[in-house]
Amino acid sequence: MTFAIDPRLEADTIPLGDMALSRVLLMNDSRFPWLVLVPRRAGLVEITDLTPFERRALFEEAALAVDRLKHLTGAKKINLGALGNIVSQLHFHVVARFETDAAWPGPVWGAGVAKPYDDPQPMLDRFRRALTPDVS
């Protein structure tokens, strides 16, 4: 089995780069600075499908994404989640939250209609610089 991003994730995101374990995607919703980390291993559903070494790597990558996202955006809170109820492929959401955002204080899932970026390139460039050298 070959690694591939679930088509539903692919349809909602813009590729940003790769960390050692994870493909990093930018959620195409300009209302929320939102990254998605997808471990590049085929057939993963649960965190326990990763080896212990890979689990540690994923949490370190998520921690780096949280730190950099908070630094870049000045967010009040960073939400980190791995739900998988709709897309079962293992993936972590890393979402910057603000008291003024469209969903505060509730979850971002199902909050209104996504507003795609008019031009995602500036956001992609900011995140690529912030996550270097871990993301290329």
Plain-language structure description:
This protein has 136 residues and is an alpha+beta fold. It is built from 3 helices and 5 strands. The chain has helices at 7-12, 52-73, 121-131; strands spanning 13-18, 22-27, 34-39, 77-81, 92-97. The chain has a 5-stranded antiparallel sheet with strand order 1-2-3-5-4. A hairpin with a 3-residue loop joins strand 1 and strand 2 (22-27). Helix 2 (52-73) crosses helix 3. The mean pLDDT is 92.
Determine the structural class based on helices, strands and strand pairing.
alpha+beta
Mean pLDDT: 92
Alpha carbon gyration radius? 14 Å
**SSE arrangement, N to C:** HEEEHEEH
Count the E strands. 5
Helix amount, in percent?
A: 25-40%
| Main sheet properties | 5 strands, antiparallel
3D shape: globular
Sheet with most strands: strand arrangement = 1-2-3-5-4
